[in-house]
Amino acid sequence: MWVTDVAATMALLLSSSRAHALPSLAPTGPFFQELGNNTWVIGNEIWNMTQGRQYGVKLYYKDHDCVGDAVGHYVSYNGAQSDLNWTSASIHNGGTYQGATYLDVKFASREGDMHWVIFSGLAGAYQYFVNRDLPTLGEFRTLWRLDNTTFTHGKTDLRDEALPPLSEYLPENKVQDETWLRTDGSGGYITKYDLSSWVRTQSYYGVYSDRFGSWYINAGKDYYNGNHLKQELMIHRESKTGDAVQLNMIHGTHFQVSAVDEFPEGKMWGPWLWYLNDGSREDAAQRAQDECAAWPYAWFEDEAYHQRGSVGGQLMLPDGRPATHAAVFLGDNSQSKTALDMGSDYYYTGYADAEGRFEFRDVRAAAYGLQAWSNGSELADVTTEFLQQDVVVVAGETTELGTMTWRVSNKTKIFQVGDFDRTSYGFAYGGAPYEHGLVEKCPADLKFTVGTSKTEDWCFGQSKQGSWVISFSLNKLGAPIPKRAQKEEATLIVSLAGYSTGVSSHIWANDVVIGNLTSGAAPGLLNDPSLYRSGTTAGEWRYFEFPFDAGTVLRKGVNEIRFEVTSNTTWRGFMWDSVVLEW
Ligand SMILES: *[C@@H]1O[C@H](CO)[C@@H](O)[C@H](O)[C@H]1NC(C)=O
Ligand SMILES: *[C@@H]1O[C@H](CO)[C@@H](O)[C@H](O)[C@H]1NC(C)=O
Ligand SMILES: *[C@@H]1O[C@H](CO)[C@@H](O)[C@H](O)[C@H]1NC(C)=O
Ligand SMILES: *[C@@H]1O[C@H](CO)[C@@H](O)[C@H](O)[C@H]1NC(C)=O
Ligand SMILES: *[C@@H]1O[C@H](CO)[C@@H](O)[C@H](O)[C@H]1NC(C)=O
Ligand SMILES: *[C@@H]1O[C@H](CO)[C@@H](O)[C@H](O)[C@H]1NC(C)=O
Ligand SMILES: *[C@@H]1O[C@H](CO)[C@@H](O)[C@H](O)[C@H]1NC(C)=O
Ligand SMILES: *[C@@H]1O[C@H](CO)[C@@H](O)[C@H](O)[C@H]1NC(C)=O
């Protein structure tokens, strides 16, 4: 099967019969070879891989099989049950770009097509997936399960270390999903969730040793689900087999309540670069920089991919302040999901500058909903979010939205504990490196006195039975209860960075229960696994308002807001963002 539109220098496209006819010369460019029986070999003069119906094995690089007895390469959704089956493969495209020849090899499954774009001279390949008929799903990934003697270490933006040896994963020490008590008596844990990282800012990650490195460099981020606070698993030791795992979670749910999406036909994830080297992290970092500079890829032949435009504007608060460093997000043009839970199409994250100006470049042409919220710092007091629907991005054009006003609360603030930014930053342990069970270090009872306590005196998570009290004096704050407020409502705003079910609380204002946070019967809250899966910064953000009658409940002098945990489950509970009382 010869493909004629591909440069002759690279054309080593062998049918099974021709393969037998030729001596086994090493190919000089990208190639695609069909062996029959749903088996193909792809690669170039530097590496090659044998792709079977489900798994890509025999990854030869530097004359060494990097997969060995491990499972190899595959694409799957919703856990391990649904590994895609490749029913046919073909050359999708090919040509030369800046002197380098390439082949785009397409493996087709019922659900969609996995592409490998193989350039001459490149160790690795660009990969992308195009949806045909994926089911409505939460988890969708491509991954390598590699030989664990060839790849002994793992690196993310946050961690760089040896993968824990399989011998440490003792069945009798398993404490929850993919989490084991260490055998060294330290009381610490081994869990794959400790190796998670932020998706939107991630530069490169992978597994390596002193001779081999296998990396993912996802230069574009728009095909991922979620917002700035999207975090995912990246690397780990497979706990059943010991394989070194390099995980490309292109749609994931590991730290969220729900991220179940339907995908339009043609939704494309990628291209990202899967990159092989000698294990050098410096080289991988440099390559990641180059890839980011080159995104969106000029060589990529896909019309819709190149239909991109820009959109910008400025966000101001009604009091004349600019929305300094606000988090800005281009998402679905409907408000049926939270920004973190959106994931059907393409999503763009950014921050406003000091003047509240923002710009998104290289945005796929479409209509979006623009959202903004406080990222702390100068906006730490802003509890509202900004939303503008029908923001239309046109290919080759810049949409200028001008100056927009972000409505804020007009009530008088009595106190605020913690910055409003959808994260636990600022509190004790808030934003610590991923660590299983860290919330155990937060106390059962805690007292915070407005005016004298510091933000870090509040802990990032509340999990144990007991009471966390915010004590505040209305006189000291120079805010005596105004007569007109006596019949007015006060509002307690509770912003949680995350919440794992199994812990319930009553919220008291002095002697009155003004609300509850519970995962019990309806309208109970839903679970996000962040707190018990090593999350320390954020999970699924939740916003609550508990109104009450200030005139009858509050008094001159010392008052208290109390969060009383009435039932608890180990490692679960509330991850705090901010608590605000206003009237
Ligand atoms: C075809 O592949 C299947 C499974 O991958 C294998 O069991 C079978 O032996 C193969 N047949 C031939 C003729 O190679
Ligand atoms: C794949 O690489 C191995 C090891 O370098 C080599 O022996 C083999 O010929 C290559 N296969 C193809 C089809 O090029
Ligand atoms: C792929 O085929 C296997 C049977 O060999 C099956 O168990 C699996 O469910 C199939 N995958 C999908 C996504 O249907
Ligand atoms: C590597 O995997 C093998 C199983 O293939 C396992 O026996 C071994 O313990 C693993 N090595 C490490 C360091 O975990
Ligand atoms: C957003 O907030 C995080 C956490 O406080 C901070 O590290 C980051 O610099 C902020 N981004 C901007 C653009 O201010
Ligand atoms: C706050 O007051 C201004 C001016 O009266 C008004 O335009 C704005 O809608 C109010 N904001 C809210 C959130 O009610
Ligand atoms: C519940 O909290 C109490 C402390 O108030 C603690 O002693 C107990 O161990 C916790 N129970 C669980 C299941 O974590
Ligand atoms: C919690 O508050 C909700 C809303 O006010 C109420 O419907 C529910 O009964 C309360 N649950 C408990 C256990 O107090």
TrEMBL record:
It is an enzyme of class 4 (lyase). It catalyses: Endotype eliminative cleavage of L-alpha-rhamnopyranosyl-(1->4)-alpha-D-galactopyranosyluronic acid bonds of rhamnogalacturonan I domains in ramified hairy regions of pectin leaving L-rhamnopyranose at the reducing end and 4-deoxy-4,5-unsaturated D-galactopyranosyluronic acid at the non-reducing end. Its main location: secreted. Gene3D superfamilies: 2.70.98.10, Carboxypeptidase-like, regulatory domain (2.60.40.1120), Galactose-binding domain-like (2.60.120.260). Its EC number is 4.2.2.23. It holds the Pfam family CBM-like. It comes from Apiospora rasikravindrae. This is rhamnogalacturonan endolyase.
